[in-house]
Write a structure and sequence with these properties.
GO biological process, one term (chains A, B, C): regulation of DNA replication
Strand order of the largest sheet of chain A: 6-2-3-4-18-17-16-10-14
Structural class of chain A: alpha+beta
Pfam family, one (chains A, B, C): PCNA_C
Number of helices of chain A: 4
Family (chains A, B, C): Belongs to the PCNA family.
Largest interface: A-B, 12 and 15 residues
Protein name (chains A, B, C): DNA polymerase sliding clamp
Strand content of chain A: 35-45%
Oligomer: homotrimer
Shape of chain A: elongated
CATH topology of the largest domain in chain A: Proliferating Cell Nuclear Antigen
Helix content of chain A: 10-25%
Number of strands of chain A: 18
Subunit structure (chains A, B, C): Homotrimer. The subunits circularize to form a toroid; DNA passes through its center. Replication factor C (RFC) is required to load the toroid on the DNA.
Largest sheet of chain A: 9 strands, antiparallel
Number of domains of chain A: 2
């Protein structure tokens, strides 16, 4: 059983966070939380999303699992105006999701969850460096790095106590250093890893410029990015595997 | 003889209503009205437009007929700012239309009216159901239906006293029901017809979201859509032939 | 030695004025002025730009010459917000330009000036007609002319004391006449020349609609267009060679 009412903004934010990595996903409909875990086809980027029942206008669920086509669901949500409410109701028998927006009813055929790529186990890493940074600074770094290279190094300099971004191209380079007073928080630790810019650009699309983003970093380790959605009633974690550094 | 001054907005609205169906048209320049009738190449959609002399800043005509390339005339009108006035003057000898916008003069070669597809006779049908609906509700229905199908059913349910829209796709469906309190007016009568979404999408482009649109519907009959333009100094009627239903 | 701080707006305006004609250019870094002269590959359009040291927040230079890729430098400047300051510093040894925007450092490899097309000598012509006109009127004339033709005639009618623009297409024509009261200034003299619209469209892109543009015109002679940038701390001159008229 699943029946919920949610604002168009919240639904769009939720779907966008996942659709930057995958086209289809499984959605867990537990009694107090809607949750999604997914990994991209190359197993390089992962997403773990939780949206509390309190993020909804109303929410009733009892532990179901549905498979959805994300871009289709995004298109439907995109028909609603910003403040409008969207009603969702699962028909268990037909395995269809009834979506209502101000009298307009869309009947969406669901996907068999077994046909969707398996959900990843997102490892509980104990990474030495923690950085809290504004979404707009991630956007600036990723946009600039993309002008010169297809990969980007993120690290923490424990000596000078700063977070840095480096991108080295064939002729041009991009470098950004942020000291503690330019960050929301810095818990320095030895960290330097290289990442594919394609993935970070996709993740960056889903990060609001005003969001406070927590980064967890290590030395040639995956990076984790955490941020809130839906007025902190929802939470997204991205994990991105490092690229092997050639020196 | 034809000489007129009209606001850029009014001219654009007029041209757009016709250009969604045809590339070229004949314009009748009668002494108190400018009028256009046209049918698309497949004879599926028709338009009948009247613009009263009172919609113009000034208007002098004596029953002439000109043939124009609509997209060309739209491009010219598009050079004017929203509030600007456009002067039109026909040179009978050269068969050219002189168009002036704030000192800029564009000389447009006209098309021989005889070379343009014949104007349709728009039949005076006595259709059983009449619905008055906001332009934005037509827009919502057409946009949603377009996500699942290439045709759309419009009808009136006399039992439940409501207007409905149905679009059935291979996997997903769209359904919209509007009761009298969600409509401007409903004069129920037996009606259900299937239409090509391509045509309705084109017509929808020319219908302002704030317009009050009168629909006339029947059972496997053409639909007529009426709405005002130019502050009710002009009027547009679209007629769209039904598709044969396969059951 | 070169070290300067400049607003993003001023830098963008400067680069745009030159990039409409060429992809790479030499920049002269004199002690009180930054200047650029360039000619397009076909030697039809030329630009001569001066930006005074006073247009910068701070400026130190001693007569250097650098070669730059304009679109790359425009992309970098485009990362800054409208009001933001951009720091430029030349590393003489590595021949790289260090560009800083709010902590983000971009290291741009310069181009050997000797590998860039030679700078033109812009002739000091004594043209008989001078017209001062708003940028928006140039924009209107060029946009309209582009609808009918690929060349445009500009001239002054000394008899009627007006500046005119003519474009003749295969079927349609565009004509604009501006009398002294519709111009900022008119110093009439015999002038009529035909120009390639492609070049004038490119130059028009860099002319602000609110700019006061000085035109110098002659009879089958090049045209010169002058306008200020950077709150009159900078100045741009375009020169465009005429096309041969076929009569």
């Amino acid at each position: 059983m699943f029946k919920a009412i949610v604002s168009a903004d919240t639904l769009q934010e939720t779907l966008d966070s996942v659709s930057v990595l995958v086209d289809e996903c499984k959605i867990h409909l537990d009694d107090d939380t809607l949750s999604i875990r997914a990994v991209d086809p190359a197993s390089v980027g992962m997403v773990d999303l939780d949206l509390a029942a309190t993020a909804f206008e109303s929410y009733e669920a009892d532990g179901g699992l549905i498979g959805v086509n994300l871009s289709r669901l995004e298109d439907i949500a995109g028909m609603a105006d910003a403040g409008q409410l969207i009603q969702l109701e699962l028909d268990e028998e037909t395995r269809k999701l009834h979506i209502q927006i101000d009298g307009l009813e869309y009947t969406l055929a669901l996907i068999d969850p077994d046909s969707i790529r398996q959900e990843p186990d997102i490892p509980d890493l104990d990474l030495p460096a923690h950085v809290a940074i504004e979404g707009r600074d991630i956007d600036r770094a990723v946009t600039a790095a993309d002008m010169v290279s297809d990969h980007i190094a993120l690290g923490v300099d424990t000596g000078d106590d700063l977070f840095y971004v480096n991108a080295e191209g064939d002729t041009d380079d991009v470098h950004l250093e942020l000291a503690p007073d330019q960050l929301i928080d810095l818990d320095a630790g030895d960290a330097h890893s290289l990442f594919s810019l394609d993935y970070l650009k996709d993740m960056n699309k889903a990060i609001p410029t005003t969001a406070e983003v927590e980064l967890e970093l290590g030395d040639e380790f995956p990076i984790k990015l955490h941020f809130d959605i839906a007025d902190a009633q929802g939470h997204v974690t991205y994990m991105l595997a490092p690229r092997i550094q050639s020196n």
